[in-house]
Amino acid sequence: MIDLATEFPLRPGLIYLNHAAVAPWPRRTARAVELFARENMLQGAADYPRWMRVEAELREQLRQLLGARQADDVALLKNTSEGLSLVAQGLPWQPGDNVVITDQEFPSNRIVWESLRPSGVEVREVPVGGSDPEAELISALDSRTRLLAVSAVQYATGLRMELARLGAACRRAGVVFCVDAIQSLGALPLDVEAQQIDFVAADAHKWLLGPEGIAVFWCRPELRDRLRLYEYGWHMVEHPGDYERRDWTPAASARRFECGSPNMVGIHALHASLSLLLEVGMDKVAAAIAERSERLVAGCEARGLELLTPRPARRRAGIVTFRHRTLPAALLHERLKAAGVVCAPRGGGIRFSPHFYTPLEALDEALATLEGLKAL
Predict the structure, then answer these.
(1) Which domains does the chain have, with CATH numbers?
(2) Distance of alpha carbon 97 from alpha carbon 68, whole angstroms
(3) Rounded CA separation 63/207 (Å)
(4) What is the pLDDT of residues 204-223, one digit of tens each?
(5) Confidence at residue 355, expressed as pLDDT on a 0 to 100 scale
(6) What's the predicted TM-score (pTM) here?
(7) What angle do CA 177, 72, 280 make, to 5 degrees?
(8) CA gap 178, 61 in Å, rounded
């Protein structure tokens, strides 16, 4: 049985509710990096084949988290923005084409599509604050829509999208479906096949409990050749170890999207972090997160705070954002920070984002802190 208090030995007095920003590492992840650093110090890359085995195991872990068919469809990139840029800059566009996004997207999932405007591509920003955001997005699709891009969970409000419904609509309409999963992967189960997703990108440093500087990018195999490559190097070719070879072709696998040397420190760290999530099981992780978000929602309501996150449980994941009736968000954030509550001001309110291991008592302490600030 996993001892979560041992895996997450946060310092006393700290209440960490900021996994939607940057997550603490599990103990096993810190240990993996320490061992990798020691190995480098003592022998450099003398056992590079072992490093490559860890890399292969990481791709398999990510395949399992994505519900993908094979690990060869998984690319290891630097961040979500790079993955989304591969799609935006790689697909063939024509003047008059359009991309549909929501009005709640993080800049990573907005700027990449806006960068296509000089090529005559329209970006349709659809409001999704109503009772049926999927219907609003689907109604915005037309014969010139080439791609629908959404975050699985919106970073500020925590709105959770029904990916399967959107994926089915895109498949019927012949529209490419691209998902920014940075606020869901590691918090919710994902199934790219069942949800009919075409592209997924997600960083490691939030719900995956890994480091910054490494991310997953998944491309449906049938669409791989449709992406024009714009980054080239020794690692993305079919025969990367044959340095004297003069002729080359892009790798048949998703490695074609990895132009240069891999981030081996990040690979070892993320490999360790995912071992924890897979050992616990994503169904149990999601259930624990749902319990914690419901506890926060109920606590906010009991204290008269204005919820910015949707109330229905099916519309939430790990993010609960609220607004104080009298205190500005910036001031409330400073007072919470002074009380040891690590959170973030987002969307005009305060965003709490606990993970599956967050003690329930810590949530109650954070809520009690809000109660103490109520009269200020």
Answers:
(1) 4-17+282-373 (3.90.1150.10), 29-279 (3.40.640.10)
(2) 29
(3) 16
(4) 999 999 999 999 999 999 99
(5) 98
(6) 0.96
(7) 80
(8) 21
